[in-house]
Amino acid sequence: MKILVCISHVPDTTSKINFVNGDTEFDANGVQYVINPNDEFGLTRAIWFQEQQGAKVTVVNVGGPETEPTLRKALAIGADDAIRVNAKATDGFFVAEQLANVAKQGSYDLIICGKESLDYNGGMVPGMLAGLLGFDFVNACIDLTIEGTTVKSAREIDGGKELMQGVLPLVVGGQKGLVEEKDLRIPNMRGIMTARTKPLQVIEPASATEATSSVQFEKPAPKSAVQLIAPDNLDELVRLLHNEAKVI
Fold first, then answer.
1. Distance in angstroms (rounded) separating the CA atoms of residues 118 and 8
2. Residues in the chain with pLDDT < 50?
3. Over pLDDT 70: what percentage of the chain?
4. For residue 29, what are the CA distances in angstroms to 15, 18, 77, 118, 157?
């Protein structure tokens, strides 16, 4: 079984975010980047298939040379090889087209993406990728088992989960639950050293559509100070909730 795991290179959630050039560009100075958490759950599940069923795991990213440390970390975790599409990830459809091109050339049985990346939270790429490939698609996937070409999966829905059965090939949009946080792999020294010698192929982007562009970014408004009301002053509390908060 050949597995392709799509990896996004995203800012650590603890990083301070700023914009430059009139709030039209993200300021990457001083920002620490990591594997997108939803993608890391998928990568960990792929490594489980590698260890238990002999699957070959390839990781892929659409991005410039600055994303290679993130790919190397994925290799240190246990992926067999990596592919970097040498293009800026401009929008979801463009990224999906690049990933589809890689998937077609590699003839993968299973493609695992995070259900969304934690930078733009678009959640578009996995579904569009499945559509471009003509593969079945399971989003918000929280469980995945494979026997031969038969796939059993579960996805999170409002109020519970939905169990499904299908066949490969398949695209999965994974999240927490596909594996638990305690099962995530931390690269050890042997993995880090081995990752240096694993193949990381850089390919040029295929001709693709850039359907959207970012015009301007805006930070959320700062939260206002907390206003404390004495417990015996219910009239004032009601007045503030009605006139200022406008929730009653």
1. 9
2. none
3. 100
4. 10, 9, 27, 18, 38
Angle in degrees, CA 167, 170, 174, rounded to 5: 125
Look up residue 80 and give its two tokens: 């067999």
Which residue is listed with tokens 């009601």? 238
Q: Is the pTM of this model over 0.90?
A: no
Return d(Cα 77, Cα 109) in angstroms, integer: 21
How confident is the model at residue 222, as a pLDDT? Answer: 86
Average per-residue pLDDT for the chain: 94
